[in-house]
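Example 9 (inverse folding). The structure is encoded as follows.
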């Protein structure tokens, strides 16, 4: 049984089918916890640090070749990942470990007794304290010399948590811009193209700051496709986007940015400000990035949990995107196909997907009419009102335990969970969380300490004859 706990599980898991769904989700989150990911990906033998990425890439570093080793990073899983990495390095460096700083949204206990600072930031909107602490990360990187090793930990959430706005953009303008971007329905790479070009650290600029030190990045991916330029807005990797791309995103989604942002982007597009470093820039001569955990990490573990319960498990996709409401309907149809036609596998079966859906707020929606419940809750509610058969359960969570800006992780539903008219109304108002909560179907874990995107389980117990 997993160490991840769903609050009030005994009440929520009202049938064995619900129980299987929750087991799969818990096992997936557990596998993606930093301690487990680092145990699989990082080893130190003698004086050699070895790192293995989930894509099969490997790297070796002779720790004795460096005058100092420094640790920097940001993200929801940054504190735990840095702590697990420090455990691997414990006793190997002596006074050559020059400490470091990471910024996370759940710092309590992560850095206790550690030779580096774990500093609080905020997500999804940057804050003044987050900016102050992100500057500490930049200072650590800037202090590295050509004979030093900088280990960077970049995990989901780093885009907000590692925020150092470009001059003259202030924190209030950055918050307003970020809020508009998150509500407009843009993809994560579109959002990050804007954030990178309003930042002094994103889009390879942390690597530029650390150069010519050797930089090794351990990334925990929370983006579809594991593009290292998108994970955490790619602070240590080349940036393929431009100022023109940032401006195009704002225009595409009808966002009128604060005046400081508009002037800054226009100046960059006119060549009056330096571009973020692209491939071939000397800043990356001594850098490598390893993706050590991703959606597949969670999906494979969830599949193993299903098999342990006697179900055939299929990972249908790890790249589900688009509107959460649409994805919920599609997953309900997938369950129907499994039950009736035995595709893609005959029941009893668990169909698993990952990815990251979005919720687009209608233009002109008043703030006081926007309720609670993020993409995973909306996904679950949408699926629930489409289900017609008994013996099917659909569950969805954000692996970080925080679904959008809510205090829940997601939801679990069957055909009888929600009254259809009320659910449709709640979906239209983006206020599904209270309805799920009333039905004992809102899933809560609290912050999990990891973040590898959304995880969904569709459990189908019987085939319709």
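The amino acid assigned to each position is listed next.
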């Amino acid at each position: 049984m997993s160490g991840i706990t769903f609050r009030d599980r005994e009440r929520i898991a009202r049938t064995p089918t619900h129980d299987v769904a929750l087991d799969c989700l818990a096992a997936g989150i557990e596998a993606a916890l930093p301690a487990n990911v680092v145990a699989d990906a990082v080893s130190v033998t003698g004086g050699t640090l070895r790192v293995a990425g989930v894509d099969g890439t490997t790297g070796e570093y002779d720790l004795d070749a460096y005058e100092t080793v420094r640790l920097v990073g940001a993200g929801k899983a940054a504190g735990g990942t840095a702590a697990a990495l420090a455990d691997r390095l414990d006793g190997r460096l002596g006074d050559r470990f020059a400490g470091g700083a990471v910024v996370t949204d759940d710092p309590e206990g992560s850095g206790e007794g550690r030779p580096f600072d774990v500093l609080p930031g905020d997500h999804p909107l940057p804050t003044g304290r987050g900016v102050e602490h992100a500057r500490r990360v930049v200072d650590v990187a800037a202090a590295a010399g050509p004979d030093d090793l900088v280990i960077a930990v970049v995990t989901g959430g780093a885009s907000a948590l590692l925020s150092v706005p470009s001059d003259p953009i202030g924190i209030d303008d950055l918050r307003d811009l970020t809020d508009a971007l998150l509500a407009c329905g843009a993809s994560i790479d579109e959002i990050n193209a804007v954030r990178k070009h309003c930042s002094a650290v994103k889009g390879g600029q942390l690597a530029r700051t650390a150069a010519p030190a050797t930089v090794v990045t351990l990334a925990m991916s929370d983006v579809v496709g594991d593009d290292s330029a998108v994970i955490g807005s790619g602070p240590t990797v080349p940036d393929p986007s431009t100022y023109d791309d940032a401006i195009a995103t704002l225009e595409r989604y009808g966002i009128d940015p604060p005046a400081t942002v508009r002037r800054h982007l226009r100046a960059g597009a006119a060549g009056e400000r330096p571009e973020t470093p692209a491939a071939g820039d000397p800043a990356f001569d001594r850098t490598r990035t390893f993706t050590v955990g991703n959606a597949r990490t969670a999906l494979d573990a969830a599949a193993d949990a299903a098999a342990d319960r006697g179900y055939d498990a299929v990972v249908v996709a790890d790249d589900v995107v688009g509107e959460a409401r649409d994805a919920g309907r599609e997953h309900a149809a997938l369950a129907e196909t499994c039950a009736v036609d035995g595709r893609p596998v005959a029941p009893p079966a668990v169909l698993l997907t990952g990815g990251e859906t979005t919720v687009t707020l209608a233009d002109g929606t008043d703030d006081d009419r926007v309720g609670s419940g993020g993409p995973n809750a909306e996904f679950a509610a949408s699926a629930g009102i489409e289900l017609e058969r008994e013996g099917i359960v659909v569950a969805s969570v954000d692996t970080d335990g925080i679904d959008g800006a809510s205090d829940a992780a997601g939801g679990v539903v069957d055909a009888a969970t929600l009254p259809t008219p009320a659910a449709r109304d709640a979906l239209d108002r983006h206020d599904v969380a209270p309805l799920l909560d009333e039905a004992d179907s809102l899933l809560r874990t609290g912050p999990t300490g990891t973040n590898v995107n959304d995880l969904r389980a569709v459990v189908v117990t019987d085939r319709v004859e």
